[in-house]
C-alpha cells in the first residue's frame, strides 16, 4: 500500500522505524515500551486461566514483548496497511503471550499428559452432579467412540484437551505441533463422535439431543 | 437433557470454519473491523465461525481487541 494511503499514525511510525540513527532508536525504544505494557496487560488478563503466576508471569510478558519486537522489526516490510499499524503490531504480542504461556504451563502443570481423567468430564461439561446418572449413557458412548473409532493420535489429543482440560497451546508446545494441527485433530474428532452419537440414537439431527 | 447442550454444541462443527492459521493471518484486519463497528463476521464468515469454536483463537481475538481499545 502506498504510504499516502496509510492512516497518519501508521505512516509516522513506518517513517520513524525506517529512519536512521537516533530517530529510529527513539522509535524502537518507544515501541518496545508499548509492547511491554500490552504484554503485561495481556498476561494479567489471562492470569486466571493459567497455572503461571507471580514473577514468572511478568517474565513471560517481557519475553513476549522482546520476541514480538524482533518479529515486528524483521517483518516491517510485510506491513501492507490492511489494518492500523498498532493492531498489526499488537497481534505479535498477543500471539507471543499465547505461545509462551503454553510452554510455561509444563513447569507446574495441574494435570499430566495422558492422565485420562474421564471421571471429571461431566464436570467439565457443566453437568449438574444430580444429573450425572442420567448423562452416564451418552458419556459412555462418547468414551466408546474415543476408544474404538478415533486414531491413537486423535484419542491422545482429544483426551488431553477435552477430558483432562490441558490448554490447546500447552499441548501444541508439548507435542511440537502448531495450534492449527491440534485444532484440526479435535475438529475431526468432534465430527466423528457426533456422527456416532447420531447414528446410535443419542443425538438427533440437526443437533437436538433426546 | 438440557445439561448436555454444552456437549452437543461442542461436537457441532461449522463447515465454514477456516481453522487457526487462516483466522490468525487476518486477525488484525478482523479486529480493526470489529473495533470500528463494522460487520467483520459478514466479511469473514469463516473467521467468525472459527472464533466461536476455538478457545485459544477467541482468547487472542479478545486480547487484541482489548489491546487496541486500551493500548
Task: Give a description of the structure.
The complex is a heterodimer of chains A (210) and B (71). By secondary structure, chain A is mainly α. Chain A has 2 domains: 3-107, RNA polymerase sigma factor, region 2, helix turn helix motif (Rna Polymerase Sigma Factor, Chain: A, Orthogonal Bundle), CATH 1.10.1740; 118-209, Arc Repressor Mutant, subunit A, CATH 1.10.10.10. Helices cover 67% and strands 2% of the residues of chain A. Chain A has 9 helices and 2 strands; from the N terminus they run H-H-H-H-H-H-H-H-H-E-E. In chain A, strands 1-2 form a two-stranded antiparallel ribbon. In chain A, strand 1 and strand 2 (208-209) form a beta hairpin. In chain A, helix 3 (54-74) packs across helix 4, helix 4 packs across helix 8 (168-175) and helix 6 (132-149) crosses helix 9 (179-199). The mean pLDDT of chain B is 94. Chain B has 6 helices and no strands. Chain B has 71 residues and is mostly helical. Chain B has helices at residues 5-11, 20-25, 27-35, 40-43, 45-53, 55-70. Chain B has one domain. The longest helix of chain B is centred in the C-terminal third of the chain and has 16 residues, at 55-70. In chain B, helix 3 (27-35) crosses helix 6 (55-70) and helix 5 (45-53) packs across helix 6 (55-70). The radius of gyration of chain B is 13 Å and the shape is globular. Classes of the chains: A mainly alpha (210), B mainly alpha (71). The interface between A and B is large, with 50 and 38 residues.
Amino acid at each position: 500500500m502506498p504510504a499516502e494511503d496509510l492512516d497518519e499514525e501508521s505512516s509516522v511510525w513506518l517513517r520513524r522505524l525506517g529512519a536512521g540513527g537516533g530517530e529510529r532508536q527513539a522509535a524502537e525504544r518507544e515501541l518496545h515500551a508499548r509492547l511491554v505494557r500490552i504484554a503485561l496487560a495481556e498476561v494479567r488478563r489471562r492470569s486466571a486461566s493459567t497455572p503461571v503466576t507471580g514473577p514468572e508471569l511478568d517474565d513471560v510478558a517481557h519475553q513476549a514483548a522482546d520476541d514480538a519486537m524482533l518479529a515486528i522489526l524483521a517483518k516491517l516490510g510485510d506491513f501492507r496497511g490492511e489494518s492500523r499499524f498498532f493492531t498489526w503490531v499488537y497481534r505479535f504480542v498477543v500471539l507471543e503471550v499465547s505461545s509462551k504461556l503454553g510452554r510455561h504451563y509444563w513447569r507446574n502443570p495441574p494435570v499430566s499428559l495422558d492422565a485420562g481423567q474421564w471421571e471429571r468430564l461431566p464436570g467439565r461439561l457443566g453437568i449438574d452432579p444430580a444429573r450425572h446418572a442420567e448423562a452416564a449413557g451418552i458419556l459412555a458412548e462418547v468414551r466408546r467412540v474415543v476408544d474404538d473409532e478415533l486414531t491413537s493420535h486423535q484419542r491422545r489429543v482429544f483426551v488431553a484437551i477435552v477430558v483432562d482440560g490441558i490448554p490447546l497451546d500447552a499441548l501444541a508446545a508439548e507435542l511440537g505441533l502448531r495450534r492449527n494441527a491440534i485444532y484440526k485433530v479435535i475438529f475431526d474428532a468432534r465430527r466423528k463422535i457426533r456422527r456416532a452419537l447420531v447414528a446410535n440414537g443419542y443425538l438427533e439431527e440437526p443437533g437436538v439431543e433426546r | 437433557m438440557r445439561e448436555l447442550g454444552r456437549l452437543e454444541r461442542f461436537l457441532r462443527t461449522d463447515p465454514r470454519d477456516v481453522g487457526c492459521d487462516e483466522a490468525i493471518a487476518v486477525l488484525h484486519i478482523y479486529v480493526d473491523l470489529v473495533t470500528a463497528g463494522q460487520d467483520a463476521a459478514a466479511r469473514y464468515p469463516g473467521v467468525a465461525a472459527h472464533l466461536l469454536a476455538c478457545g485459544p483463537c477467541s482468547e487472542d481475538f479478545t486480547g487484541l481487541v482489548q489491546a487496541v481499545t486500551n493500548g
